[in-house]
Amino acid sequence: MKLRISLILLLLFSLLGCEQMQTNNLNKVGLLVYETVNDQVWGTKGYKGLLKIQSELGVDVDYKDQMNNESAIKQAVKEFDEDGINLVFGHGVQYEDTFNSLSKQYPSMHFVFFNGDAQGENVTSLNFEAYSMGFFAGMIAAYMSETKQLGVIASKEWQQEVVGFKEGALFQDSNVKVDIEYTDDWDNVPVAQNRLDSLLQKQADVVYPAGDGYNVPVIERLKEEGKYAIGYITDQSVLGEQTVLTSTVQHVDELYVLVAKRFQEGNLTSGNLTFGFEQEIIDLGEFSPLIDEDFIEKIENDIKRYKESGELPNEKE
């Protein structure tokens, strides 16, 4: 009888142990950043997300920046694996190819990157529904423009927030013109300033600097010129509420915690996942007091309706 009870207890402990392994399999978390965590925009957001994971989930974390070539990434992943890290964030689309190729080599590690195509059972791509935030920002820019000339300084041609910005502006006011200048780089300040010169010569009075490392210097320049800006990634109203009309905000730090929790619970799926207004991962920042309250109320109602129906203002019947 005692032997039978002992066997039953042993079986119960074994089952509980297996369940714990399945639902609490987050050991340590690593982060790779292409440039720096001190850019106060994209890189900083990723670092804050890593710290949130550490504080909220109580796990050890580590990061490496300047991870901008394949050999450096491979060496960093090797070191992460040796240190027991089993959830790795590559903070950008730049990690797509390397993470996809490394996934089979490190089957116990889950790889996460942004805005790409995940391939493999242990690879996930986090994609922002960026078109919608750009659309609403474009509406605001068109409403506030006096010259009817809007400008965008974009980093890459594939940025859906830029497409949304243009279409939202034209929906709000079909008489506006939207000029888009590309830098082909997320951080090149001199090139972005050169693109801004071109937009100002075309009488643009609202500019959307949709890049990581250069949007703050561009906004500061717009402030000097007495023009308006739409902030990017973070709520940049702190740069001047008389300049920044609103910001297209991506709550990357909150998304990091959400993903880590899913992984910890055994619910993080591979493949391409999309997050937007509905999950409160994307939003608009503070509105400038220069925008009249009736129009702000309209935008807020449009966003609420979009969350409920998935329809943008130009899609309503």
From TrEMBL:
Keywords from the named record: Cell membrane, Lipoprotein, Membrane, Signal
Extract the InterPro entries matched here.
Answer: BMP_lipoprotein (IPR050957), Peripla_BP_I (IPR028082), PnrA-like (IPR003760)
Q: Which residues form the ABC transporter substrate-binding protein PnrA-like domain?
A: 28-315
Location of this chain's protein in the cell: Cell membrane
Q: Where is this chain primarily localised?
A: membrane
Which branch of life, at top level?
Bacteria
Q: Does the keyword Membrane apply?
A: yes
- Protein's recorded name: BMP family ABC transporter substrate-binding protein
In its UniProt entry, the species of origin is given as Bacillus carboniphilus
